[in-house]
Specification:
The chain has 201 residues and is an all-alpha fold. It has nine helices and no strands. 70% of the residues lie in helices and 0% in strands. The longest helix has 27 residues.
Length: 201
Amino acid sequence: MRLHPATQIMIWCVLVAAIQFLPASRLLMAGGLVLLSAFMLSRHKFIQLVRRTRWIMFSLWLIYAYSTPGEMLFDASFSPSREGLIDGGLQLLRLLAALAGLAILLDRLHRHQLMAGLYSLLAPLQWLGLSRERLAVRLALTLHYAEVGMLRALSWQDNLRSLFEPHAEANHELELPVYRFTFADAWLLGSVMLLLWLAMR
């Protein structure tokens, strides 16, 4: 089944939004399902994304562990709280589920497909007199180079230097492919919006 790129981007956005509202029991089920899907469909890219963000996730877990009030894990002044460890673990699961969905999305969409999807989603900007073509290209290129920076084993100095280097795309015209929305797109978007509504209840 060939889905419109905008549909696939929206599904990922709804996934990220929905997991923020899920209680712990449902989050464990939904997060486990998304992680399993990522391992089956985009294992290599998912592992790379996790490897590049591991210190951010570890820092997030420590922040929750030591800043959330609750029962101390052991009798010491530097002890993390039990509630903080649990809340931090749930936040890590939410982040891992978002990365898993992103890995699947980036594996399914090439750069031009990503631009085409963003171009469709940014259509309301025309009512404000803004250029959705320019914004879609900038967003897609930003995501592309952010992904490249995460997947390449570069030091922070190299990553900073690369931000100021000119890229070949800056001197070439880019053509966006045209995709048509189908009944499958409408059905899936309706389904994921229903799931988001149920998650928020």
